[in-house]
Design goal:
Elements: E1 2-4, H1 9-12, H2 17-24, E2 25-26, E3 34-40, E4 46-51, E5 55-57, H3 62-65, E6 74-80, E7 85-89, E8 92-96, E9 101-104, E10 111-115, E11 124-130, E12 138-140, E13 146-150, E14 159-165, E15 176-182, E16 188-189, E17 194-195, E18 199-206, E19 214-220, E20 223-229, E21 233-237, E22 244-247, E23 252-259, E24 268-269
Parallel strand pairs: 1-3
Antiparallel strand pairs: 2-21, 3-4, 4-11, 5-10, 6-9, 6-11, 7-8, 7-10, 9-12, 13-14, 14-15, 15-23, 16-22, 17-24, 18-21, 18-23, 19-20, 19-22
Length: about 280
């Protein structure tokens, strides 16, 4: 498991392009028949990806998490961004079509992931956070997610937010997770922007053609930086950082948050005049 240490905003101001990418960009999440897990010191968040050809069991460094199995004191959200696949949790099987999700509660053991067709594998994106209470494991069909329509074509930001794990839907201890789809001819997300002083957020960008990119903007409002992000790459957004993006085409991204609360609207808006 890869480890990422927390970075304070004063240090981030001095980073080169490569340093920004090394600390905040996560690549290679969906290597065929492999898993990748990144442990961060931002609220002890874990971000991962699994792309099984056959069946892959998920195991982690016991010393790093201080527990004999991953979810002894943790919970996990899973969203499939590939072809149809299956997640097994302590012997129970959940079939996930593309864009379906799964919440896995604290105390769950024996996690295994498989693809229906090894030639066209599933791609399971994982967000895992500490937990202090067990909630039931539950499948989240994309068709059953709560949609929220925002933006406009005139502002190039018409989009639909689908909430997967949230207090009014599939409940969790502290994890909040969902997916945002931008409409054709719309490229901006989360602008005007904001910060989350009480939460870290991670973005996974996908549905980006090979010859297109997204420019993810981060940093303090008065000290912005950008990351060039390609298909199926993720970005860590510390609580002090804005998190907006603009693509060379429309795209989709998954957001996952953990921290002090689960209030979706708990954000500190940044006026456009404050951005530099």
């Amino acid at each position: 498991m890869e480890t990422r240490h927390a970075i304070d905003p004063e240090a981030a101001k001095c980073f080169s392009t490569q340093e920004v990418r090394r600390h905040f960009l996560i690549q290679g999440l969906f290597t065929p028949d492999a898993s990748k897990m990144v442990y961060t010191y931002y609220d002890r968040l874990i971000v991962g990806g699994i792309c099984p050809a056959g069946t892959l069991e998920l195991s982690v460094d016991e010393k790093l998490i201080g527990a004999p199995y991953l979810l002894e004191r943790r919970e996990m959200g899973v969203i499939n961004v590939g072809a149809r696949g299956t997640v097994s949790v302590a012997g129970a099987t959940y079939e996930l079509d593309p864009r379906d999700g799964l919440y896995i509660g604290m105390g769950s053991q024996e996690l295994a992931f498989s693809s229906a067709d090894k030639g066209n594998p599933a791609k399971f994106y994982l967000v895992c956070a500490p937990a202090h209470r067990a909630y039931p494991t539950e499948k989240i069909a994309f068709s059953n997610t709560e949609p929220l329509h925002l933006g406009s074509l005139e502002k190039s930001n018409e989009r639909t937010i689908h909430k997967f794990i949230h207090p009014d839907g599939v409940k969790s201890c502290q994890l909040v997770m969902g997916m945002t789809l931008l409409e054709p001819n719309c490229v901006w997300n989360t602008m005007p922007t904001h910060t989350h002083q009480r939460r870290i957020e991670a973005y996974l960008y996908f549905n980006i053609p090979d010859d297109e990119v997204v420019f993810h903007f981060m940093g303090e409002p008065g000290e912005t930086r950008h990351l060039v992000v390609r298909n199926e790459e993720a970005v860590l957004s510390p609580s002090w950082s804005i998190h907006s993006g603009s693509g060379t085409c429309n795209y989709t991204f998954i957001w996952g948050m953990v921290g002090e609360n689960q209030t979706f609207t708990d954000m500190d808006d940044v006026p456009m005049s404050a951005l530099k």
